[in-house]
Amino acid sequence: MARFVLVHGSFHGPWCWERFAQLLEAVGHQVTTVALPTAPEEADLAGYAAHVVEAIDSLAEPVILVGHSMGGIVSAQVSELRPDRLLAAVYVNGLLLRDGESLASFLGDNAHLDVDDLVLKNMQVSEDGSTARFPAAKAPEVFYGSCTTEAAEWASARLGEQRTKVYGDPLRLTRSASAACGGSTSGACATWRCRSPTRT
């Protein structure tokens, strides 16, 4: 059996993995869920990655790292920092950015695609631009479309504030995809994409 380390995305917390963690544990896997820091001095890509690295380093065995959405960018940075500690990296609706790209630059570079991004359209950014929130009333439609009404309401009520600095922080990569997880040759490690990542 394997050890999974689960990294949440924007506005979410370890709570979003509760059902998924229970399913993994029910078949014998071990699960560590990471709460990304919220303090201003830590809530950037470097701080998030350091926090996940600390969690991985506290474990005896190599892990399967799972990043959801923005957590996928964090997972990519962690894959660069601790390739020897990863069995695989799984991106759940996560972006595979190139070296030097940030989420903001990726969206800017691809503005010509005219993507109807309901997250960007609905998130509420603070006056100074340092934080953002997502309205609970819009969350079922945007995040939890495949969930039951009860599950969507449960999750929507738990969405929290997100520091925005991480969106502009560039990813720093020197390794190829095949080297990022202990020499795996299966593409970007074991990269899986799911349509409904928050159904957990």
From TrEMBL:
Pfam families, per the entry: Abhydrolase_6
Q: Which InterPro entries match?
A: AB_hydrolase_1, AB_hydrolase_fold, MES/HNL
* Example GO molecular function: methyl indole-3-acetate esterase activity
* Keywords for this protein: Hydrolase
Its domain of life reads Bacteria
Residues of the AB hydrolase-1 domain:
4-157
Q: Name one GO biological process term.
A: salicylic acid metabolic process
Q: Which PANTHER family does the UniProt record give?
A: METHYLESTERASE 17, METHYLESTERASE FAMILY MEMBER
Q: This chain belongs to which protein, by name?
A: Alpha/beta fold hydrolase
Source species, please? Chenggangzhangella methanolivorans
